[in-house]
Amino acid sequence: MMRCPRFLYAAPASLHEACARMEEAGGEARILAGGTDLVPNMKRRQQTPRRVISLRRIGELQGAEIGGDRLRIGAMTTLAPLVEDGRIREQYRALFQAAAQVATPHLRNMGTLGGNLCLDTRCNYYDQNYEWRQAISFCMKKDGEVCWVAPGSPRCYAVSSTDTAPALWALGAEVALESAGGERILPIPQLYRDDGIEYLAKKPAEILTRILLPVAAKGESSTYWKLRRRGSFDFPVLSIAAWMRRDEGGVVEAARLVLGSVASRPVPVEAASALVGAALTDDSIEALAEEASRLAKPLDNTDFSLGWRKKAARHLVAGALRELRGDDPRSLGPLARRACELVPG
Ligand SMILES: Cc1cc2nc3c(=O)[nH]c(=O)nc-3n(C[C@H](O)[C@H](O)[C@H](O)COP(=O)(O)OP(=O)(O)OC[C@H]3O[C@@H](n4cnc5c(N)ncnc54)[C@H](O)[C@@H]3O)c2cc1C
Ligand code: SF4
Questions:
Q1: Which residues share a beta bridge with 113?
Q2: Within 6 Å (CB) of ligand 2, which residues are found?
Q3: Helix orientation angle between 306-325 and 282-295, rounded to the nearest 10 degrees
Q4: pTM of the model
Q5: Rounded to the nearest 5°, which phi and psi values hold at 192?
Q6: Measured distance CA(29)–CA(9) in Å, rounded
Q7: pLDDT (tens digit, 9 = 90+) per residue, 46-85?
């Protein structure tokens, strides 16, 4: 049996107290939300914080409410009620689909949206127990010096594997970060860094408190497609989040496309802006799918071969865009069917 290393535990009852505790720990503390990522990582000695600060007792970090022109979701809101929320299901479909496909029902009962956004990056050489990693002299991400995926590389290429980050990026979300020094708001793209170790731009003592989504406007639609080996609970090995706003004639007014699980952070496909000003056609969809496949440069450190994942990106992007156009995704071939067959609703 794997056991957690010893640590000091605190469960403050207010955000103010939690910020003070994080500050006094001086970078030695970790936030505990649902614990579905942190606790197994501690058992494997991938993360060994001296202090663990739980947010479970802080009521203001729970739930979702509309205030002004934003939907505000508390970082401690667990994924299960989020998936049941009609506003998310209907107006922020990409988030609903992403959250609904995280892990298993049990893990969605415990796992929070904030924890999902701060999820550790993943790699075949890292997601192993201590003895396995010791046998290869560890790696740069924890306890070692070399990157086994790209020996000679000065950086770690562990993969961003959160389902909800690409969806929230495509939906134009922001996050609120709180510390003893006050609050700051970051657009989701600024929360992530392209580095497998320092993958968050969050300062060590900052707590992610809320996720802010613009109130959905007329003509908006979004979708999230996820590729994984076992549909019952696997992490994504490739994901596509697409959002657009179209006028009544079907002309695209704004569009965002984001790839997940192909780098240490979600990857935006800037060429999506080329869709603006015209209706979606087979040609414009294929051109964007081609460009997305060019940008998707996965390394050989997760499931499936990297060449196949790269090719799959083209099919999945085309499928997701066709779904937004109104095509039946089940008519788009076996790979597309597989990526969306488990999407509920
Ligand atoms: C078998 C299995 C399958 C899984 N499959 C998937 C999957 O398909 N897709 C997926 O995305 N995830 C998956 N996960 C990972 C995990 O269950 C989810 O990502 C979950 O949403 C994490 O949330 P949590 O509240 O449990 O995070 P925790 O484990 O509590 O925290 C995760 C990390 O975020 C930090 N953190 C948490 N909340 C905050 C906050 N408010 N402010 C600052 N830092 C914070 C923690 O310190 C920790 O480093 C899987 C896990 C398991 C065990
Ligand atoms: S990408 Fe390299 S350094 Fe990063 S976890 Fe994998 S093997 Fe380790």
A1: none
A2: 123, 125-126, 139-141, 147-149, 156-158, 196, 301
A3: 150
A4: 0.96
A5: -110, 145
A6: 9
A7: 999 999 999 999 999 999 998 889 999 999 999 999 999 9
